[in-house]
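Hi Q.,

Before the meeting this afternoon, I wanted you to have the fe (ii) ion prediction in hand. No need to reply - just skim if you have a minute. The sequence and ligand are here:
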Amino acid sequence: MATIIEPESDFSALPDLPPEVYTAPLRKPAHLGEDWVEPKQTKYSSEDDAIWDDLFARQMEVLPGRAASAFLQGLDKLALGQGGVPEFGKMSEDLGALTGWSVVPVPMLIPDHVFFWHLANRRFPAGNFIRTRETFDYIQEPDVFHDVFGHVPMLTDPVYADYMQEYGRAGWKAMRHNRLKALGALYWYTVEFGLVLEEGALRAYGAGILSGPTEIVFALDAKSPNRIMLNVDRVMRTDYVIDDLQPTYFVIESFEDLYHQTVERDFDRLYRSLSPAFTYANSAVIDVDDVLHRGTQEYLQRGGRGSGAKPV
Ligand SMILES: [Fe+2]
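Predicted structure with the ligand bound:
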């Protein structure tokens, strides 16, 4: 079986990246080590805790019956709705007992190779701040609500937990092949905006959908977006939208399906066949697609976010 990683790869230490590998010029705060992990979780104020509670309550009005059952079970198992921003030590203890993962606080977006390194070691880096009332509906930089509420419950699912670790291992390979953009598209269309079939019904498991108020209804029910069965070769060639609702969602049959399609692939071969730029537009439907719903793209054509277009 071909695997996504070289068997001899050692993930215990940060990789030495060859000089030709591009890394984003992020400036590390002086008090942090090479892992970018904050020595302590922020001490959240009572107003911060109230923001968490209000965000939590708002999501729970739309998620039951729409979120993947693994996600809803994960919320329960980790008791993330107990009031206030969860304490990472206790949450990591509970998560560790289930799947061996932990959650570590980081100040902001961290460099790709450091992010991959944490995932490869079953550590999920989560923002060490929470949004304000002014940015309640939408923030671009992932905060503790997006990272913990959106991502962490899925890590209680054993197969998904393995997928995330393998994704981290695959990251270094993508960097060496200079194909990070393609692997980023896979993350986007699975971890952030993925849909899964449960007994024939669509459910969301992507954190970008689950942590926001409007996208879950749009992703599952609207006429505008395409819904297409996941095909890794196709997805890694597909552009995506960062700051608006997605024109296309990709659907998996199960988390085992996702694991097999990715981890059991020969990614060396795939990377060699990929061009550096994306081949397909984010709204494209192509010949090989197994299409569940061909979108009207009405929302996008009317101008999307900021235009007043309804997410229909
Ligand atoms: Fe995220």
